Amino acid sequence: MDFDFSEEQRMLADSLGKLISDRYGFENRKAYAKQPEGWSREIWAAYAEMGILGLPFAEADGGFGGGAVETMIVAEALGGALGLEPWFATVVLGGGFLRHGADAGLRETLVPQVADGSLLLAFAHTEPNARFDLHHVETTATKDGDGWVLRGRKGVVLHGDVAGKLFVTARSAGGVRDEAGIGVFLVDAAASGLTRRGYATSDGLRAAEITLDGVRAEAVLGDAANGLPLVKRVVDDAIAALAAEAVGAMDASLKLTLEYLRTRKQFGRAIGSFQSLQHRAADMMVALEQARSMAMYAAMMTDEPDADERARAMHAVKLQMGRFQKFVGQQSIQLHGGIGMTMEYAVGHYFKRLTVIDTQFGDAEHHLAALSEAGGLFQAA
Amino acid sequence: MDLRFNDEERAFRQEVRDFIEANLPPETRERMAAGRTPTKDMVVQWQRALNAKGWAVPHWPVEHGGTGWSAIKRFILNEEMQQWPTPTPLAFNCAMVGPVICAFGTDAQKQHFLPRMKNLDDWWCQGFSEPGAGSDLASLKCASKREGDHFIVNGQKTWTTLAQHADWIFVLVRSNPAAAKPQEGISFLLVDMKSPGITVRPIITIDGAHEVNEVWFDDVKVPVENLVGTENKGWDCAKFLLSNERTGQARVGASKERIRRLKRIAAEAPGGATPMLANPRFRDKLTEVETQLKALEMTTLRVLANENKRLGEGKPDPASSVLKIRGTEIQQAISELFVEAAGPYGLVGADPEQDRWNEPELAPEWATLAQPVYFNWRKQSIYGGSNEIQRNIMAKAFLGL
């Protein structure tokens, strides 16, 4: 067991950190958010140049062979910057389907396009009645000749407004809530029958509602009736990446708060000299350190081959991350007082991002129920 | 970064399990698994077995009997002992005064005391707290006066854990009442409990147990060679000792063992129409605490891994306060869940001082012990620097407030 970064990992963290401190301050971010797509194409190009976008893919496919720890490093850095770009949607989610589900031919075609920044991806899965249940799929896939035709509605598709291709879940067999019968299909965003309506999410990122009205899929990943294990695999990777992103955001939010406690004066002294606020800040640090541990645990467990064991771990991660990020986010605002409520100041944006992360791929309560149902983390004696 | 136990670490874990199985009497395990504290004899037997194996004090410097292991290997040994469960090597000897003597003691002190500590030939206790000096330890008043080759000690210590078993006590005394700062006039003395003038009076805690005591000093003569470190610089020893104390308080293995046992119990414990474990409200609380424990486990490993690098700096990781706070909160939360699982039969008053009081059985032993343990464990967030003091430490040492 070894918690140190390798030389390469340290270089990755340093160079990404430098890019962010040079070009992704909070004022830069405000400007990027106002661009037509709600994020910066220049930054995206810089990520491609640094190798961030091709990082987790195998070298044979045109990537750089990074693993879970490299993804953790990138996610944490982007979390600290409140990154607006579609890295999570394209590289973690879309990239996850390419890595875990696509055949060699598809990987050979698409991975280089992801790595050079020309192809954006999205994962169209959530549906209006599904809430957080991955197996709830009403969208249908009907066999038509040697291909599949999709019909249905997908909601809150992160960066679905700009993606060039989407991985769409649809049911080829079974009832709406059956675990079997779900397939993962690759769909071109320009395909006939696909319409999308983009909008800003509450944390200032972008998403889309997507309607599929007889859309012909380009490919199916694996078995059209047994795609749920693949979805779960990708979602587990996503939970690990979100945990690291949340750690970056919590760390930045706590730093801002501590700085404020040291400098803000009331009653003739720095408010950080008051014990009630010191203890609150200490509790925030406890939460952050625990969160950091959970993000590392998540990274470690993404490679766990036993799917049930991996799922239990990710339930635990998402549950505890939900608790920690809510506490740090809320208290960051509270300790700032009024200024924390303003749109012009960064801390409220961290709070909003942390709130959204909790609701992505299941909130704390969802994962609490799921883990309890699965018998918890530790076996009975 | 590789966050998995490697082959060597896994093999070591198995070696530890085999050693415990071969050397721990089953009655010790049974008593501890029921939630009762081990007897003095049980503690002594186990520590001597560990010492014979060379495992009693792995964290001490190698020249004094340490093993030179990585922090992770030490974690594995502790975790396996706590999960079994076995008695803990006596903290006063191994985690507190032993390292102080290794770091600050004279050669004669090292040669005489350290081998006896490791083997539990001497049972040590800790004379720090006083009625007027709890969290504000530096305000202590128990006084020593130099007279020729002796210090004469007068005063009172309190909350002295297991002083009734002790052969020796390490004591903080005020040796210079005129010092500019309270921390500057304190010395660290080693005192034979058989010295004339020492009186031990039991304090019975709310669970009914005799665990802590008052220790009174009335003109107790202590030879000057029993001074540790420099006269009036005892606070340095105390700070060193207290920071070492905190990393041990996470007790991850012990909490895992308690959770596993609670799951087995709750699968059968009556909860109305279904067992307690089938009650979603109870189960969710259990899930919440076990995931908190997973986060604490990872944090402990991070702190320990870091400790290897910090070796030689002589300073503790400020994150040890995080471990103390979370470790004690989690242990207390688990003790509450035992109370909840026990339900009405939890109010049968167990007598922790009496063996076999529950024969014939009035209620399962775990149920009758649930409340006493819960009562007793309120101490955890108080001792070793209360959790509020830990937050003060973090604010100053870590957060720059």
From TrEMBL, chain A:
GO molecular function: acyl-CoA dehydrogenase activity; flavin adenine dinucleotide binding
Domain Acyl-CoA dehydrogenase/oxidase N-terminal: 6-117
Keywords: FAD, Flavoprotein, Oxidoreductase
Acyl-CoA dehydrogenase/oxidase C-terminal domain mapped to chain residues: 227-373
Xref: Gene3D superfamilies: Acyl-CoA dehydrogenase/oxidase, N-terminal domain, Butyryl-CoA Dehydrogenase, subunit A, domain 2, Butyryl-CoA Dehydrogenase, subunit A, domain 3
Cofactor: FAD
Residue ranges of every copy of the Acyl-CoA oxidase/dehydrogenase middle domain listed in the record: 122-210
SUPFAM superfamilies documented for this protein: Acyl-CoA dehydrogenase C-terminal domain-like, Acyl-CoA dehydrogenase NM domain-like
Protein family according to the UniProt entry: Belongs to the acyl-CoA dehydrogenase family.
Protein name as annotated: Pimeloyl-CoA dehydrogenase small subunit
Organism of derivation: Plastoroseomonas arctica
TrEMBL record, chain B:
Keyword Disulfide bond in record: no
Co-factor requirement: FAD
Database matches in Pfam families: Acyl-CoA_dh_1, Acyl-CoA_dh_M, Acyl-CoA_dh_N
InterPro entries: Acyl-CoA_Oxase/DH_mid-dom, Acyl-CoA_Oxase/DH_mid-dom_sf, AcylCo_DH-like_C, AcylCo_DH/oxidase_C, AcylCoA_DH/ox_N, AcylCoA_DH/ox_N_sf, AcylCoA_DH/oxidase_NM_dom_sf, Mycobact_Acyl-CoA_DH
Domain Acyl-CoA dehydrogenase/oxidase C-terminal: 232-398
Entry GO terms, CC: plasma membrane
Domain Acyl-CoA dehydrogenase/oxidase N-terminal: 6-117
Residues in Acyl-CoA oxidase/dehydrogenase middle domain copies: 125-220
Molecular function via GO: flavin adenine dinucleotide binding; oxidoreductase activity, acting on the CH-CH group of donors
Keyword terms of this UniProt record: FAD, Flavoprotein, Oxidoreductase
Nucleotidyltransferase in keyword set: no
Membership in a protein family: Belongs to the acyl-CoA dehydrogenase family.
Protein name (database record): Pimeloyl-CoA dehydrogenase large subunit
